[in-house]
Amino acid sequence: MLLKTKRTFTILLATVLAVTVVGCSSTNNANNDSAGTNAKDPAWVEAKTTPFGAFPETVNYTVGQTATNFTLLDGSPYEGDNATNNVWTRYFKDKLNIQNSPKFEANDGTDYSQKVSMAIVSGEIPDLMVVPDYATLQQLYENDLIADLTDAYKNTASDRIKEIYDSYGGRVLENATFDGKLMAIPTTEISRGPGILWLRKDWMDKLGLEDPKSMQDIEHILTQFVEKDPGGNGAGKTVGLVVDNENVAGVSGGQYSLNNIFSLYGAYPKQWIDNGSGQAVYGSVQPEMKPALRKIADMYKKGLIDRQLAVRTGDDRKALLTSGKSGAFLDNWWGSWTVADSLKLNPDAKWVPYVAPQSEDGSVTMFTGNPSSSYLVVRKGFEHPELATKMISLQFDYQRYQEKDEKALKQFADYSSLTVGGYPITINVDYYDAFYRNVDIMKEALATGDPSKLVSNNDISAYNSYKKFLDDEKSGAKPDSNAWAGYESSITTANMVKESNIKEVSPVFFGSTRSMPLKWPTLSKMELEMYLKIITGDQTPDAFDQFVVSWNKTGGEVITKEVNEAITSK
């Protein structure tokens, strides 16, 4: 539904932008709070050219803001906080001397996308705004509505922020660069890592099964689970591998997805990949798909995959795992959270992660996700475009890594415990390998009881949680299921991924083309039907060949041409 909304939004935006350019430029030019500031004043020069220098006078800015449920603060010391006066806005005011004024507020997702569209159509673009996709960013650039942030990034992005963006090998900033100019500060989407196979280790131990590496190992374990019923469900009632019926594969970080099995055959469903000759091709229609589908269909036929996958809901899938009806699923490094409730229902349940199935050389191949899904832009004509990079530097460098004021840190921790945000701008900036980057330092801290070498304030909070989990486990106390899930994902699984042989395939296109809004829904439906029919045996794997022909005729060939044109023009 969200995808459809974004496409509708893009079409509307393209239609009306041409007639709103003048309105956008003229309506907001009066909102230059610091107009007339002395460009040679050392205090202003420092503020405009350094990451953390405060402005000598308060700089007010309008912003498109994601709504926060501040009623969650009722009864706390922060009761009465709001969108312009909360822990985060006070922090920005104290450190940078800036003050937000929401031009609009909206709930995250579809509601926010619609408010962005309305702001642009009405000619009332805020000074700062996060746009929800690349297509919107491109339209804003082409219609000359946003500021060039090249110098702002060079001068006021902190060294750590630059290091973070560099960890993506240039992919993130490149997405926001047009004609050599950086036109937005992109969100970073950290690596989701390879697919992780989660298995009931207590079942494996009961049956004397060894840890899996190959696809053959996995099939053997699944066969033993289903046939020998180590969970005591009754003959024929133990379910095989749990699989998503809407995202069988092709989503980076996809829960219950079979990406690892497809990648064994060099297949990358739903991804635009380089065919080796510099041309983008759609992974779902490549010949490598067919043998992968044949293998998965064979597993289904043998009962090694959930026989009812086609009709399961998300709640059904989770319940199969937490209730002990199934002991296997593919997820990612955070998969422990999926089955955390298992410990509440059965304290003896032991879920263990594996980087598997592996190729003959011991590697697992994964495709990388979209490195940036949203973009922070600045209205053209706003006097302080550097505000964007200064705010990013303060929030994702100074506050996260350098802030030592315990009172300030407690306030942020309190907000977090109450699940309240309050950020004037809602994006995230973090290292590509964030989930395992500091795992060795954390392991050392837990082993020695000395957290002094931990890198970030977030690490210190996590350390306290993990240490309590380990202390409870050592003393024989019943561990909290959430504490277990956090430790298992961020320590056990992160360390395992860090030490594994992971190969990456980077897709070459994540955007939209002119034909996609009209044709892609039909093509996506055809693709999903193909997966389900072949896997469940309604059609043989040979039906894949006809699917490819139909996909091309129904618009796939046209879209493939458009994707390559878009890549070339970029």
TrEMBL record:
Superkingdom in the source lineage: Bacteria
PROSITE patterns named in the record: PROKAR_LIPOPROTEIN
InterPro entries tied to this protein: Bact_solute-bd_prot1
Keyword annotations from UniProtKB, A to Z: Signal
Signal peptide: 1-30
PANTHER family assigned to the protein according to its UniProt record, in alphabetical order: ARABINOSE-BINDING PROTEIN-RELATED, POLYGALACTURONAN_RHAMNOGALACTURONAN-BINDING PROTEIN YTCQ
Protein name (record): ABC transporter substrate-binding protein
